[in-house]
Amino acid sequence: MANFTKKAIIDAFVKLLNEKTLAKITVTEIITTCEISRNTFYYYFEDIYNLVDYLFNTEIEKLQEITMTSESLSDECELVLDFLKNNRTALKHIYDSANRDQLERYLFKALDQTMLNFVKHCFKDIDIPQGDLHFLARYHKYALVGFLINWLADDDDEELESLLKRISLLTEESIRNYIEKLLEISRQKE
C-alpha cells in the first residue's frame, strides 16, 4: 500500500507539473488530486521540493539501469529521448522556476554516471588512466547538459532527436580521437 500511495502522490504531482509551474502547485492540490490526507503526504515527503528531489533521484536510478545495457552513446540518447519529450512541459516548469538549480543538478547527476559508464565501456580493452576517463566523461557531460538546458528554453521539439544524434556522434568521435592521441603520446614516451 505504501508504494501505491507514494506513486499516487508522484503521479498527481507530475500531472499538475505538466499543467502549471512549480511555484503554483500546492500540497493541497496534490492531496486533492490523489485523494489522500495532508498527513499522508507529509509522511512521505517533507515538502514539494523534497518530492522534486525524490522524483529526480528515482529517474536517475532508472536511467542508470537502462544505460548500463546500451552499446553506444547514440543508443543511450535514444533511451533518454522519450523521457525528455514526454516530460518536457514538467521539466520546463521546473527550469522556469526558482528551483532551476534542482533541474540542473538532476541533469548533471543523471549524466555523470551515464557518461562515465559509456567512456569505460568504449575503452574497456585499453589501459587508460582513470583521470583521463573521468575528464572525458565530465567534459562531454557538461556539453550535453548545456544543449539540454538550451533545448528546454527553446520551443522546437523536433530538434531534440536530431540534436541528440549529432551530439552522440560528435562525442563518440571526440572520445576516440582523444584516446588515440593519449595512446600515441604514451607510445612515443616508451
TrEMBL record:
Domain of life where this protein originates: Bacteria
DNA-binding region: 26-45
Gene3D superfamilies per the UniProt record, alphabetical: Tetracycline Repressor, domain 2 (1.10.357.10)
InterPro entries per the UniProt record, alphabetical: Homeodomain-like_sf, HTH-type_Tx_Regulator, HTH_TetR, TetR_C_Firmicutes
Keyword Cell inner membrane: no
One Pfam assignment: TetR_N
UniProt keyword list: DNA-binding
Domain HTH tetR-type as annotated: residue spans: 3-63
Protein name per UniProt: TetR/AcrR family transcriptional regulator
Species per Swiss-Prot/TrEMBL record: Dehalobacterium formicoaceticum
Classification lineage: Bacteria, Bacillati, Bacillota, Clostridia, Eubacteriales
